[in-house]
Structure formats: C-alpha cells, structure tokens
Amino acid sequence: MAVDYTVIVVYLAGMLAMGWWGMRRARSKSDFLVAGRRLGPAMYSGTMAAIVLGGASTIGGVGLGYRYGLSGAWMVFTIGLGLLALSVFFSARIARLKVYTVSEMLDLRYGGRAGVISGVVMWAYTLMLAVTSTIAYATIFDVLFDLNRTVAIILGGSIVVAYSTLGGMWSITLTDMVQFVVKTIGVLLLLLPIAVVKAGGFAAMRAKLPTSYFDPLGIGGETIFTYVLIYTFGMLIGQDIWQRVFTARSDRTAKWGGTVAGTYCLAYALAGAVIGTAAKVLYPKLGSPDDAFATIVKDELPVGVRGLVLAAALAAVMSTSSGALIACATVANNDIWSRLRGLAKRSEPSAEHDEVAGNRAFILVMGVAVIGTAIALNNVVEALTVAYNLLVGGLLVPILGGLLWKRGTVQGALASVTLGGLSVIGLMAGYGILANEPVYYGLLASLAAYVVVSLATRPTDESVLAVWRERLAGRSPELASEPVPAPQ
User: Fold this and answer.
1) What is the DSSP-derived secondary structure letter of residue 186?
2) Residue 447 backbone dihedrals phi, psi, to 5 degrees
C-alpha cells in the first residue's frame, strides 16, 4: 500500500497548496465568494460537475448499482437532469442578477423581507449537505489508513476547512478542477473498464444476474419520481449550485458550461451503476451495498491505480463538502448574521477587501460546526434526506414562482416558505425521515400557500418589478448586496 499511500498524501498536500495559492487571488468579497465572476467555460464546467458529483454520487451511486443494477443510475441521473434544466432555462438569468445568495434574489424579486427566513432554511440545507459529505471521509480513510471514525472525519474535514478558509471560492475552484480531473481518470477511465473486465464482460454479467438488473426502470417508478422531485428540483434552487452559477464570466458561459457539466453527470451516473453491477457479480453477498465501491477498489485494482481511484473518491467527497461549506458560511454571514445586526447595507468598493476577513471567519466557524455535527451523526442518508426535504418543500415554490410568475408577492413567498418548511418537518416526524410523503405533501402545501396568499394580497409594487426586470436583463451595474426596500 506504500505507493497508494504516496498517491493519496501527494493529492492531499496538493489540495492545501491550491488553497494557499487561491488565497493570493482572493482580494475582494467578489473574489472570495464567487471567484470574481470570472470563470470561463472550461473551469466553470469542471467545477460545476465536481460539486454536484460528491460522495453520494460516487460511493452511493455504485451502491445503488450493486443493489438494483443499471436502474441504480437514476439518482445521479436526476442530478444531471436538474443541472441541465438549470443551465438551459434559468442559469443565464441567475448569472445576470449579480447577487451572492438565493435569499438576495428573493429580496430583489419581492421587495425585501423574505431574506432572513429563507436564509435560515437555506442555511439548514447547506449545513446538512456539508455534514453528509464530511461523514463520508470516515468510509474512505477507513479503507486507506484503518483510522478511527472520529479521527477520519477530523482529518478530512480539517483539510477542506483549511483550503476553503484560505482562498474561498478561488481555492475551491482550483481544487475542484483537480478533483474533476482525478474523478474522470479514476472512475470513468480506470475503475469502469477494469470492473467490467474483472466481472467477465457484459455477457457474463447478464448470465450471472437476474434480468431485473438490466431493466432501466427496475428501481421502481415511485423511487424515480421521488428522485426527480428531490434531486432534479433541488439542483434548481440550492445555494451551493447557484453560488457556482454566480462565478460564470457571462450568462453564455453559465448556460453552455452548465450544459456540458450536466451531460457529464449523465455519463457518470451510468458508469457508477455499471461498476456496482460488476461488483454484484464479483461479491454477491456484501453486508452493505455501500461497501461495493471500497471492496472492488481494494481487491481488484493494481497498486498505484488503487490509490488514484481512492483519491477520486476522496475528490468527490471533498468537492461537494467544500462547495456546501462556503455556501453555508455565505448564507450565515450575508443572509442571517448581517441582517439580524442591521448591517445589510450596500457594499462600498473600498470596503470589499475588509469583507474577506469576515467571510473567512464564517467559513472557519461553520467548518468547525460541520465537523462537530458530522462526528455526532451516524446516518448519512437521513441527514441528506432532511436537507433536500427542507430545501424543496420550503424554497422551491417561492424561488421558481419569483422567476416565472409576476403575480407572486412577498406575503405569498413568506407563507410558502413557512408552511412548506413546517409541513415537511411535521410530516417527517409523523411518517419518518425516509418516507416520501413529507416532500410530496410539503411541496403541495407550499404551492397552495404561495398561490392563495399572493392572490389575496396586493401585487408587488411596479417599481420593485422594474428593478427586477433591469437586473434580469443584465442592465444594472450595481451589486446586489442590499435587499430592495419594501414599498411604503
């Protein structure tokens, strides 16, 4: 394992070096939070693919392939569909808004007062997303170094917190590009063909497994529908995803670069399912489907290649974790802390550099909170389900409603967030965290509240909508760091 260890250590050291180099480029709030809004198509595509394809997509995707066969691709496939929908239909408009957070978009659209409550919901989502990615370090470092779970979480989490704190989005962008390359080589170009060959090829796999393993809908229609509802729609509205859209150099970059990343996700989904199917042939009686990835890597890959593929798994986890961490810190600082202190004032250019230190401190604090929460929790699936249920049930309707329906009002948005969020929480307590009903009924409650309350209240002031239209058209040069005041 010495060669494999060397590959991993060099990779981790490289991540820290990228963080240090990124710190030299993060000279303003815009640099630190959205990479100066200067990413071109290649870097944008790579970093967007890196953030959406995390540990759940890699280790979990292979596990679903082990359990269901080719239809196990649906979870990651719906993530790719969501990214494609975001890129084709919404990303250009989102990029032109020149905001830093989803809550700022809501304030801009509805005329203020929607930021804090939506910020709390988005903060909870990004926190739990970062926690689930951090928990995944335990699995990977256990395979690598046979480390204690707590030590593994602290080690992996500390590296991510370190490079994210140093350079913010610039560091994360640079590390994500490396992680994208490592994942592509490790998973698509090495593990996929080796797994298929070791399993005897597709003909042997078909002969040894039930036909259901090769049924595209074998995982079940209800499960596929739930994945679409949670992951496809979740991709449309998550702060971690939007914050990457904000890094695009132009709306064209956001649209076409995101389309390339979404297409890559579809290929990655199929690759994970095929690898899991091959693992089922090789190891038909694993204790847990999620052990399939680590087992096939550990037992079937040659020295050196094994280290690179484990580095690919580590890259998948780190990219999602760092993206969720900076999103969590951005929301906590810009949408909650600053507003509660009454500091949500327009940023002056001369104050931009001073804001870097504040955002850096929030990343550090949120990073410590994420590591502590990850140590305390055990169930990754439950934590991820809570995160996406809150996001979709609480924020999907007011966000898409604001983009698509002129008649939506701030009162309707607040009612939608509140009723949708509380419904999801209550239904998870009643039906269970992993049940499908909470997100189904919570989303319906959110939609009903949004439509009914919006129609029952005065339309949004035309002056607010005029500013919104100007920003959507990309004609406003102003930074959107201040919520639009509500009409008197």
Assistant:
1) I
2) -65, -45
CB contact at 8 A, 419 and 446 = yes
pLDDT on residue 478: 47
Q: Give the DSSP H or E segment for 37.
A: none
* pLDDT confidence bin for 346, thresholds 50/70/90: very low
Interior angle at CA 180, CA 175 and CA 186, nearest 5: 120
Of the candidates 426, 315, 433, the one whose C-alpha atom is nearest the C-alpha of residue 379 is 433
Rounded to two decimals, the pTM is: 0.85
Q: Are 449 and 456 in contact (CB under 8 A)?
A: no
Long-range contacts of the stretch 426-434 (C-beta < 8 A, 24+): 428/386, 428/389, 433/382, 433/385, 433/386, 434/381, 434/382, 434/385
Q: Write the DSSP symbol of residue 39.
A: B
The pLDDT tens digits for 266-305 are 999 999 999 999 999 999 988 888 888 888 988 888 887 8
Residues 6+ positions from 278 with CB-CB distance below 8 Å? 195, 196, 198, 199, 205, 296
